[in-house]
Amino acid sequence: MELDTIHILTIIVATMFALVAVFQMLLLLGYPLGEFAMGGYYKVLPVKLRIISGINGLILLMMGVIFLQHTNVINWMNFISTNLLVWIITIFLGLNTIANVLSRSKKERLVMTPLSGITFILCLIIVLT
Hints:
The protein is an all-alpha fold. Helix content is 70%, strand content 0%. It has 4 helices and no strands. It is globular, with a radius of gyration of 15 Å.
């Protein structure tokens, strides 16, 4: 299979989603990385936020699968129309980037803002192509 630019961008996006999902799972497990997420209020997230991190991790993995399906890198879920979903995800990432810029946590601003912003731009390129 020859990979074109959109397929490569999609694989990068899915990889970025997977990496952030791993980060979310580390938060779920109680690793002291909370300063990089959810406003940076806690070093170790309280139980309720840890559960939310676990859910976020699963959602992030699904977002990666949706993009992979949308560009036909995979064909696991042909029964789902991804056109609206990729737009929703892309808009969410744009809003998430703005929220990261406004975070009171310097660590979140420095790490998550560029990560979210780059992912948003790549997703925007994918959905506009």
